[in-house]
Write a sequence for this structure.
């Protein structure tokens, strides 16, 4: 089945002539029709445009002129990124109900990542679901409903890039673009058993700028580290609309780019010889499900067999959640402000309730939060003088009930209360990759988080590829998967 192939495997078949991009696009669209009704990963499709793009890619391969290593690969885009001629409704009725929202002419711009996807020759198959304005760590909203986990549709895929993670895990296209403001590519990657990278802030340009400011990153979501690396190489295109972007060369020193780093990591018996790794099971302030900690600890032991020197050590930081809340909810309030004073009455009820708890921050509160952020960043920069990589669980728990912001009976209503290991690294802007490392006794995926110093993204990818190669396949095919649902092979 083409829906079981990775992006790089598909492209290799395109080059050999064994398969065409049109075949792959058609199979992806057929798969979405068969299984997406159960998981609700997509909020917008345009099969005519998808097949037209696939035919252009097919012609490039026929001429022997592919645009790059992922030309023709089916790709989805989170419905946060602008896409020319296609509504970007961000899971919100506030946008969907505006006059002209459905008019293609109302959407004249591509986001930088959207342009990069087209320039790489990727075939866009649709836009994926998000919670309203990507504000929380699960994926549901009043506009498109509840998105579900392919491993168990009673459970959440996480969020806010939950549609993207569900699509990749279910075989509905091997490449997906997500956003990450507090863990939003890494949380769903862990819950769905896929790979996701939050690169150093600014490496992937963003436009328009996020109301969450410099917490917000764009990131690739795939099934393998090599696919993530190849996708990253394609996304490293400068865009003058993002004044805070950094040159691509800042994270790709030495020979080759991200794909070269992944290839290096996956080769040899001890590819991580001499690497200094700190393992913190809880960052000094979290609490883990025992089965999650068991799987992550086991994977850390594998790193030692690859040549890494591993110390169990906490980085010596306090939970920055209070400062994160100031930055996050001030941004969320800014999202709603242009929609008028009654906008709060028309949004996700849990958003409305959260803003009731976190509101009316002063400028002094905001500056205090920025000071906490700066101190945290300085502490982590110093920490990485002694350690190349920090390892944590991606999340302390496995996936829980869909349609809930927190697990049933949880001690807090805040999504941040069950994501203590992701949002700190949005505050510090460090690169962090989530990799599947095992399963709970019930078969639910567990993710390990690999964190590097700022601009050491290539190292994070190298370590992820080495660990992935050593672990092998650790997550079973999801219960809901295109290849298990019948259809056209290839």
């Amino acid at each position: 089945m083409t829906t079981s192939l990775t992006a790089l495997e598909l492209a290799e078949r395109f080059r050999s002539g064994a398969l065409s991009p049109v075949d792959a696009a058609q199979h992806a669209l057929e798969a979405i029709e068969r299984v997406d009704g159960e998981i609700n990963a997509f909020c917008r499709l345009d099969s005519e445009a998808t097949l037209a793009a696939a035919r252009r890619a097919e012609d490039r391969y026929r001429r022997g002129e592919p645009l790059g290593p992922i030309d023709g690969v089916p790709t989805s885009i989170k419905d946060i990124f602008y896409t020319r001629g296609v509504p970007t409704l961000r899971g919100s009725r506030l946008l969907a109900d505006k006059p002209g929202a459905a008019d293609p002419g109302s959407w004249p711009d591509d986001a930088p990542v959207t342009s990069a996807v087209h320039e790489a020759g990727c075939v866009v198959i649709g836009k994926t679901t998000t919670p309203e304005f990507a504000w929380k760590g699960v994926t549901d909203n009043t506009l498109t409903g509840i998105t579900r986990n392919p491993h168990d549709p009673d459970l959440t895929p996480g969020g806010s890039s939950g549609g993207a993670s569900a699509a990749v895990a279910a075989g509905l296209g091997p490449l997906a673009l997500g956003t990450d403001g507090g863990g939003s590519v890494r949380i769903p990657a862990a819950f769905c058993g896929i790979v996701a990278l939050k690169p150093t802030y600014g490496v992937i340009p963003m436009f328009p700028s996020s109301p969450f400011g410099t917490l917000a990153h764009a990131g690739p979501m795939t099934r393998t580290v090599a696919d993530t690396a190849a996708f990253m190489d394609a996304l490293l295109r400068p865009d003058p609309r993002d004044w805070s972007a950094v040159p691509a060369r800042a994270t790709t020193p030495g020979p080759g780019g991200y794909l070269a780093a992944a290839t290096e990591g996956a080769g040899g018996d001890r590819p991580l010889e001499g690497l200094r790794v700190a393992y913190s099971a809880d960052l000094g302030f979290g609490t883990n499900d025992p089965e999650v900690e068991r799987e992550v600890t086991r994977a850390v032991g594998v790193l030692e067999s690859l040549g890494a020197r591993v110390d169990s050590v906490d980085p010596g930081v306090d939970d920055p959640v209070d400062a994160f809340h100031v930055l996050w909810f001030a941004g969320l309030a800014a999202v709603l402000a242009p929609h008028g004073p009654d906008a709060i009455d028309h949004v996700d009820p849990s958003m409305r309730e959260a803003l009731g708890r976190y509101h009316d921050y002063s400028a002094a509160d905001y500056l205090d939060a920025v000071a906490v952020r700066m101190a945290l960043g300085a502490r982590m920069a110093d920490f990485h003088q002694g350690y190349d990589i920090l390892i944590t669980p991606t999340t302390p728990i496995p996936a829980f009930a869909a349609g809930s912001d927190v697990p049933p009976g949880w001690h807090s209503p805040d999504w941040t209360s069950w994501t203590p290991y992701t949002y700190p690294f949005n505050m510090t802007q460090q690169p962090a990759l989530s990799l599947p490392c095992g399963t709970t006794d019930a078969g639910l995926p567990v993710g390990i988080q690999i964190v590097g110093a700022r601009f050491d993204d290539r190292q994070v990818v190298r370590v992820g590829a080495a660990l992935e190669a050593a672990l092998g396949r650790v997550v079973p095919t999801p219960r809901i998967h295109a290849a298990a649902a019948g259809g056209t092979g290839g």
Summary: The longest strand covers residues 432-439.
